[in-house]
Amino acid sequence: MTKWVYNFGAGHNEGRADMRNLLGGKGANLAEMSSIGLPVPPGFTITADVCTAFYDNDRKYPDDLKAQVDAALAAIEQAVGLNFGDHDHPLLVSVRSGARVSMPGMMDTVLNLGLNDVTVEGLAKVSNDPRFAFDSYRRFIQMYGSVVLGVDHHRFEEIIEHAKMEADVIEDTALTAQHWRDVVEGYKDLVQQETGKPFPQDPHVQLWGAVGAVFGSWMNPRAITYRRLHDIPAAWGTAVSVQAMVFGNMGNDCATGVCFTRDPSTGENMFYGEYLVNAQGEDVVAGIRTPQPLSASVAKPGEIPLEQAMPNAYAELMAVRSTLEKHYKDMQDIEFTVQQHKLYMLQTRNGKRTAAAALRMAVEMANEGLIDEAEAVMRVNPSSLDQLLHPMLDPKAPRTLLGKGLPASPGAACGTVVFNADEAESRAAKGESVILVRIETSPEDIHGMHAAKGILTTRGGMTSHAAVVARGMGRPCVAGAGGISVDYNSQILAAGGKFIRAGEVITLDGATGEVFVGPVAMIEPAMSGDFGILMEWADKHRRMGVRANAETPMDAETALKFGAEGIGLCRTEHMFFDPERILAIRQMIISNTDTGRRTALARLLPFQREDFRQLFTIMAGLPVTIRLLDPPLHEFLPHADQEMQDVADSLGTDVAIIRQRAEELKEANPMLGHRGCRLGIAYPEIYEMQARAIFEGAIAVAKETGKAPHPEIMIPLVGMKKELDITRAQVDKIAAEVFAETGTTIDYSVGTMIELPRAAMLADQIAESADFFSFGTNDLTQTVFGLSRDDAGKFLPAYVEAGILVKDPFVSIDIEGVGEMVRIGVEKGRKTKPDLKLGICGEHGGDPASIAFCEKIGLDYVSCSPFRVPVARLAAAQAALGSATDRTA
Amino acid sequence: MTKWVYNFGAGHNEGRADMRNLLGGKGANLAEMSSIGLPVPPGFTITADVCTAFYDNDRKYPDDLKAQVDAALAAIEQAVGLNFGDHDHPLLVSVRSGARVSMPGMMDTVLNLGLNDVTVEGLAKVSNDPRFAFDSYRRFIQMYGSVVLGVDHHRFEEIIEHAKMEADVIEDTALTAQHWRDVVEGYKDLVQQETGKPFPQDPHVQLWGAVGAVFGSWMNPRAITYRRLHDIPAAWGTAVSVQAMVFGNMGNDCATGVCFTRDPSTGENMFYGEYLVNAQGEDVVAGIRTPQPLSASVAKPGEIPLEQAMPNAYAELMAVRSTLEKHYKDMQDIEFTVQQHKLYMLQTRNGKRTAAAALRMAVEMANEGLIDEAEAVMRVNPSSLDQLLHPMLDPKAPRTLLGKGLPASPGAACGTVVFNADEAESRAAKGESVILVRIETSPEDIHGMHAAKGILTTRGGMTSHAAVVARGMGRPCVAGAGGISVDYNSQILAAGGKFIRAGEVITLDGATGEVFVGPVAMIEPAMSGDFGILMEWADKHRRMGVRANAETPMDAETALKFGAEGIGLCRTEHMFFDPERILAIRQMIISNTDTGRRTALARLLPFQREDFRQLFTIMAGLPVTIRLLDPPLHEFLPHADQEMQDVADSLGTDVAIIRQRAEELKEANPMLGHRGCRLGIAYPEIYEMQARAIFEGAIAVAKETGKAPHPEIMIPLVGMKKELDITRAQVDKIAAEVFAETGTTIDYSVGTMIELPRAAMLADQIAESADFFSFGTNDLTQTVFGLSRDDAGKFLPAYVEAGILVKDPFVSIDIEGVGEMVRIGVEKGRKTKPDLKLGICGEHGGDPASIAFCEKIGLDYVSCSPFRVPVARLAAAQAALGSATDRTA
Questions:
Q1: Cα distance from A724 to chain B (closest Cα, Å)?
Q2: How far apart are CA B492 and CA A168, in angstroms?
Q3: Angle in degrees, CA A237, A238, A242, rounded to 5
Q4: Smallest Cα–Cα separation from A23: which of A97, A79, A103?
């Protein structure tokens, strides 16, 4: 015989905390609390298997369920000395749903079940409080009526409002027993009228009605949608817990409350919670009366803490708190009720917390010996670290929303609106805080983005230029705010009838994507010592290296500060937009001879050499991976007429030539165009100049410091082994030249990005010519999905919303598709070279779920933007510790 | 002991025709001919293994090689009764290279080896012809000097020219023995001067020099490049054949000639060849004297056929011809020499032939019983069929080249130049033959392309819009002629200093990519009965179906005529560019409400329904696969200012709205943008309209003909199973509606293109929702390589030329990368549904090598443009017969 029902309480606990899959979170924890001696009213849990059987068997219960429920109910009756449906001493119960994970859309709770027109009189008599009895009855009808019978809950509230109007009172508490009797009559009429049937009087009918409503709600549309979005199998089902009622609303020696074993906002080790005297659970959250604090130490004048009102119950609760933390080894979120000075525990679960609190609690609990360091590392959600590293809006500050975009780069920023990069730079130079507002940004805007406190764009997605660059710089950014329009001519920003002119102030919240009118008060990040401690523990436990994507000395220094162990991606093209350099680049592009291009490149050489010299110096002793020129040449040419004229003037050439070259270089699909190693093959002089700059820079550092850097030179967009052979030969040739010229030889590696499906499929061949691979999962995502990240903004959000995609694949790696391609690349690469060094340098290198995947397939390191380095360190540690990152909320 | 040397001739033949890998083509066939009793001068072949051993062993010969060569040489001496280096009766030999495949760049032939200052006198004496002897000696020095010693061959020719000037004669034949003695002296001085050493006098040194030159040429740069481009392993090596000389230049009873056992141009079963009296082999091809015909029946007045000049040798040759064809069962290309009325065979091999000849010979040989039908099918190169289906330029017609582009669509066309589609249409309507010249074409040019006799573009590759559409229409097209410039304003086409104005005539050769000034005479295709017979035989032997990519009734009819077994791809968007329809499409695009879009689509419905009704009627009983709308919406909007204004006027709206919508829809990478099923998901009304048109059209045909079509509805660009689920549900919903409305139900399938790497990787999931897959290898090639076909023209040709890519992957499927992805898709799809119907509908569906791959991985059918259907039928048959398509040249 299958066991469908598990008792708990009154010394007979058939469940345990680890039976959450069978009993739901609530049921499992009630049994567990009872087992460790905490005061839990007795009850039983109908297992989630019943739910599954119910749906597998055409919505019929297992034959032997009723008998098991009857037996369990009898056990409660015996434990509390009351009988279900008894006219004089009626047992009342609560019925609650409980799946293995908390799930909105499910029926939640029905209290006071067992009351009817007869038992309510018994309750009135035995409690000697008719008002309590009828208030309880009306609460029951209201809850049961709305959640089981489907009557709109507003209709019930109208009846109370009507009663208060008639009685000429304002508060519910002013209603008398008779008033509640009348309300009960009104409720019953309403139910009859809405459902065509009288309110059920038989407690057993009530019970099975409530149980059926819980199981029924498992398949309601909201629950189905939620499960689809969160990949929860319908087969998990939900459990139902039935428990003897205790009453917090039986008089002034009764109370009900919720509390956390530590402060969920700060993590401080203090008891945090609130309670109401003479109330039932839902009153605490309803906000009709003001809850009071638990501890005397935090009570404000006029407040009556539980410690003072009910000292015994308080003392007992403090003991419970300590027991629970020791038992669960985590901060608990507790519900309790005091009935006539006696404490009862109704629920416990791991409490939700802020990032700061999670961090502090993890470190403190480890220091207290409650958990070990590895467990502490597992306790902090890596993604939440972002909150700790950037300024935040003060949650209490007033604000006016202008519009919303994508939370492209975390942190808050406040400043005057400017619409172009030059102005941003010049105003910032005068000490002004500015927000750079653009329809979209391009590499030419980088100096303005750098000068700005924050960036707002109205086009583009999470991996648009603005978003990627802003994250790299640690600048808050709201991207693709489609509801906001930008008019460069009139210098106005408009949304929903509000207009912001250039020079007026806005505030961005890069963590939520919100844009506010005017300034909003902010809280600066407090990098507590706990942060450093946790990071140290994380570093002890991780296997993968963490590097940063960085080009500038500032980026490199930031990366080092955050604990990066080298540079995983230095995008050399980002070094070309400085005004002194862009001219030489453009000169190279418009040259149509090899000689002309070499002349222009010769002008760039000293700049590039100095770039690399600085990076090698900062990253002393750490690896630096330098990617040779990647983007198509047209990205470096101006497009507006005036800009073209300016460039023509600077280069002393005819604007027609610039225009013609720009026209020639135009591409239908630049992402799939003449870029990456295809440039290096068409114009060998480009990679040769870059290789020379790298070797000369490295040798300069070797001579200055006596310690030679080991440059890792990376060829982008390889799809065929021969492409790597040809470009690698260019690099080797220059290396030999520079070594001969300088009389110094250094070690270097040449590897490739694996960022095309073909490269992954043929990684075994490509590995023959590569010293390392770095998976460029940004571009790989674009090609595997056939999805341009610049254009995806138009439909990708709708895809995520409709559940076609669970997550934006540019944010978190698509494990089934893109990930599988990476896995193939790893397998084939290592087949050829078992010790091939493997990393990832796409945006995914800073995403915890993606990092867990990288650990699983055995990469050697991840590389991410400098500000994501702590996130990556923690995520890598958690991945190594082999557990899911969603263990804490 | 390894056998390094194989004798042939004089009754001792150690080789056979099937030992081509070891003995090379020449050596193997010499032995074979000798074995079957044909008159072959005795000789021996040094195996290709010696070449391999030579390179494996630091360019040293195997120790025992010399002894084996000496023995073989002795066998020749004995057979012919002459001795190598003998002063009175010297044996002379030829030395020839011979790899298993014919390979340019290799050393070819040295004749008369064994002559020196002494033996030449012996030869003069024994032949009683000093002029012959010294002519032979100077020929030997000239050949040996240039190919073995590396002296520029022009330097030798200068000496002859000088001698002729001094002698005051014009023809070589007028030089006397003394003149040739002087030339020999001059040659020897030249060799001394150029090499610093005297010309080698020792015949053995000469022999090893020539053998070494053959092996050395295996590793010369031209040979290496050729091998790289043709995937020939260096390890194959080359063989060397050494053979006793016979002399066609020993007097007027001597001759030399080349012939084919059938006419290689027409395939006619007649003896075809030419000869020269008193000449050596190279004189026939040198063109100094006019060769004479072999047979009397084809001799023109004044010509002296061999049949008349040497009737016995001719009769013997006729017998040889018959023996060889019966033995080799294929048309042979023969070299012979007659020495003093005695016939000697010097070479035989399968002869190269035109497409027409290959076809005729294959059919006739099968009818003669020489080969069977399957072998006949294998004998014709499918790609060559194109030549038979289109007009060709008359090879004899004079022509002036203007420039060259890609051979984008075969056939020749001649007409007046027009620069826009409307004008092409209006002039063509008046009966004028026009060539449409565009920088590149777009869907808006289709009516003009259709009206034109041929299309020329200056941009774009083999799969550019112009190329794809032209092939589909069977219009000759030269694409991407980068050396030709087009100026729309001045209406001038310019290249290399030549200018062609609008209205002037040009001629295109779509098979070579050449563009000629003015008209060039053409030959119309003669679709002989042989073609039909061979196609029937091919159909008997193929496993895969062959369908066509077709949208218009004309395309569908052409496809049927060429033997298509259904439509594999009907691209519905091609139906939208008709002026009546494009307006409705544009109205839909600029509507920003669901209702507005539905109204516009309702106007399109009757057109689409009629489209499908016609296709179903033409394709009665055959499957029709219809792909729902695929391209991004901006492809349907105008881009030029005036056009925008016109559209605004037609739609009665403001041009600003058109402009804004065009701006909104603009994409950075349209290939990776909002297209395919992403449109169907964003705007369900589009696919719903198309589905309705399909079902209503099909039901109309069912009612008219009593036979219901079975539409196969294909969803493009699916990357996730849910995309297919959603769009499939749209189709099913409309099917149910139409079936209810009409009271008629028909069978239909819903499937998807597999054209994204992700779709291939997750084909197992996608197959759950698909009735069929059609591999869209055009787009798959773009995403697997990260290569836009619109932009690839800038560097792909250079890649192919440099051998980075062996073939343009848009023309012939990249088996290692794209093909592997398709293979994975097939494997995963069939894992879920073992009987899943699988086809291919990219351009590769008409490429023989790709078709062979499709056969190998088990696809059910290929689909290609109507004009490629015969090619595909033949290629599919050859693939099924399990042999390489390059079996005949």
A1: 10
A2: 95
A3: 150
A4: A97
Can you tell me the distance from the alpha carbon of B239 to that of B5, in angstroms, rounded to the nearest whole number? 10
Q: Taking each helix axis from N to C terminus, what angle separates B203-217 and B48-56, rounded to the nearest 10 degrees?
A: 80
Enter the tokens of residue B330.
């294929």
* pLDDT of the residue at A888: 39
Chunked mean pLDDT (size 10), chain A, 889 residues: 92 91 94 95 96 93 95 95 94 94 78 96 93 94 93 90 89 88 96 96 97 92 77 88 94 91 88 88 68 88 92 95 95 94 94 85 96 95 81 85 88 93 88 92 84 90 78 84 89 90 93 92 75 94 96 91 95 86 90 88 95 96 96 89 84 87 90 96 95 97 94 98 96 97 96 98 98 97 94 83 84 95 98 97 93 97 93 96 51
Are residues A608 and A693 in contact, defined by beta-carbon separation less than 8 angstroms?
yes
CA distances from B327 to A229, A562, B6, B354 (A): 73, 81, 22, 22
Task: Choose among B674, B804, B820: nearest Cβ to A791.
Answer: B674
Strand, helix or coil at A188? helix
Q: What are phi and psi of B57, to 5 degrees?
A: -115, 40
Other Cβ atoms less than 10 A from the Cβ of B226: the count is: 15
| A672 contacts B671? CB cut-off 8 A | yes
Residue of B nearest to A781 (CA): B758
Residue of chain A whose alpha carbon sits nearest to that of B680: A795
CB pair distance less than 8 Å for A671 and B672: yes
CB contact under 8 A, B791 and A762: no
Question: In Å, what is the CA distance from A680 to each residue of A673, A695, A726, A764?
Answer: 13, 17, 9, 23
- Count Cβ neighbours within 10 Å for each residue of B693-714 and write b for 16 or more, e otherwise: bbbbbbbbbbeeeeebbebbbb
First-to-last C-alpha distance (Å) of chain B: 38
Residue from B440, B486, B787 to probe the interface with A (highest A Cβ count within 10 Å)? B787
Which neighbouring-strand residues pair with A542? none
Q: Could you say which of A723, A788, A802 has the minimum Cβ distance to residue B667?
A: A788
Q: State the catalytic residues of B.
A: 465, 841
Chain B CB contacts of A719 under 8 Å are: 784-787, 817
**A638/A615 Cα distance (integer angstroms):** 29
Chain-centroid distance, C-alpha A491: 35
At A526 the pLDDT is 61
Which helix (H) or strand (E) covers residue B580, if one does?
helix B579-590
Residue B102 has pLDDT above 50, yes or no: yes
Residue B289 has pLDDT above 80, yes or no: no
A598-635 b/e with 16+ CB inside 10 Å = b? bebbebbeebbbebbbebbbbbeebbbbbbbbbbbbbb
Q: What is the pLDDT of residues B500-517, one digit of tens each?
A: 999 999 999 988 899 999
Residue A174: other Cβ atoms inside 10 A: 11
Inspect the interface and report whether the beta carbons of A757 and B722 lie closer than 8 Å.
no
pLDDT at A445: 85
Q: By CA distance, what is B779's nearest residue in A?
A: A786
Contacts of B648 (CB under 8 A, 6+ apart): B654, B655, B657, B658
Rg of the Cα trace of chain A?
Answer: 33
**Residues A835, A854: Cα–Cα separation, whole Å:** 16
- What span, in angstroms and rounded, lies between the C-alpha atoms of A525 and A530? 13
Binary contact (B669, A674; C-beta < 8 A): no
Nearest to A456 by CA among A401, A493, A499: A493
Residue type at position A226: Y
The label of the residue with tokens 């190998």 reads: B856
Instruction: Give which of A789, A460, A482 is closest to B673, Cα–Cα.
Output: A789
Partner residues linked to B494 by β-bridges: B485, B499
> What is the average pLDDT across B252-267?
89
